[in-house]
């Protein structure tokens, strides 16, 4: 097995072409899957913006430097991605190549989210919901793992979505439909849980 050492000093110029292609493929696959799953909730302009701004795949060193330039501080340990919306590139660290597809999907979900809702809800809920949607789409759950992305936040968000119905959570997250979630929460006492996998 060949070891891909993207952050090794001798490999700083660029990852091999086949690895760059793999990352680009993961980026395009994330957008296509998000479009397929949530097309009824996403304005076409949002998807166009996402496609116009390819994810920036950066070595660990580049990622930390770019994060510090943008936010005035180093990223927290374990941070592998960030994005601010569909009108600019998402940023993904390649320091853990095996995590790149999942992190890319997570960051693309942030870009697909309704901006008003993202700013109105608690950051913990938004990160948890983003990770819960990521895990549903990728089939990768991190329950019980020592280094899980947003474990408490994801469990809480998943619990809310399972109680109110995933469809209401999707309508809020992607479409900004706060009434759907409110209506679902108000009526949950009489109904069994719904699952919209």
Low-confidence region ranges: 1-13, 188-197
Give the averaged pLDDT, no decimals: 85
Number of strand elements: 3
Using the CA coordinates, give the radius of gyration.
17 Å
Helix content: 55-70%
Helical stretch tally: 9
Tell me, what's the shape? Answer: globular
Task: Return the domain count.
Answer: 2
Structural class assignment: mainly alpha
Note the beta-strand portion. under 5%
Largest sheet: number of strands, sense, barrel closure? 3 strands, mixed
The secondary-structure element order is HHEHEEHHHHHH
Strand order of the largest sheet: 1-3-2
Oligomer: single chain
Measured between the Cα atoms of the first and last residue, the distance is: 36 Å
Word description of this protein:
This protein has helices at 17-38, 44-52, 60-71, 100-112, 115-120, 123-138, 151-164, 166-175, 178-186, and strands spanning 56-58, 81-82, 91-93. Helix 4 crosses helix 6 (123-138). It has two domains: 1-112, no CATH class; 121-197, no CATH class. With 197 residues, it is mostly helical. The longest helix has 22 residues, at 17-38. It starts with 16 loop residues before the first helix and ends in an 11-residue tail after the last helix. A hairpin with an 8-residue loop joins strand 2 and strand 3. The protein has a three-stranded mixed sheet. Mean pLDDT is 85; it is low at 1-13 and 188-197.
Write the layout of secondary structure elements.
Elements: H1 17-38, H2 44-52, E1 56-58, H3 60-71, E2 81-82, E3 91-93, H4 100-112, H5 115-120, H6 123-138, H7 151-164, H8 166-175, H9 178-186
Parallel strand pairs: 1-3
Antiparallel strand pairs: 2-3
């Amino acid at each position: 097995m060949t070891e891909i050492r993207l952050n090794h000093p001798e490999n700083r110029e660029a990852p091999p072409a086949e690895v760059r292609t793999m990352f680009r493929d993961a980026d395009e696959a994330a957008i296509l899957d998000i479009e397929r799953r949530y097309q009824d909730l996403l304005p076409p302009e949002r998807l166009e913006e996402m496609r116009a701004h390819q994810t920036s795949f950066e070595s660990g060193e580049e990622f930390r430097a770019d994060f510090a330039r943008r936010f005035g501080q180093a990223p927290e340990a374990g941070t592998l991605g960030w994005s601010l919306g569909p009108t600019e590139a998402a940023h993904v660290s390649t320091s853990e190549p095996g995590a790149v597809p999942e992190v890319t999907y997570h960051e693309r979900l942030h870009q697909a989210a309704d901006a008003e809702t993202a700013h109105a809800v608690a950051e913990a809920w938004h990160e948890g919901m983003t990770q819960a949607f990521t895990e549903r789409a990728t089939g990768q759950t991190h329950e019980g793992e020592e280094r899980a992305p947003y474990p408490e936040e994801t469990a809480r968000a998943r619990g809310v979505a399972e109680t109110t119905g995933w469809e209401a959570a999707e309508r809020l997250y992607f479409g900004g439909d706060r009434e759907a979630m409110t209506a679902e929460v108000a009526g949950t006492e009489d109904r069994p849980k719904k699952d919209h996998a």
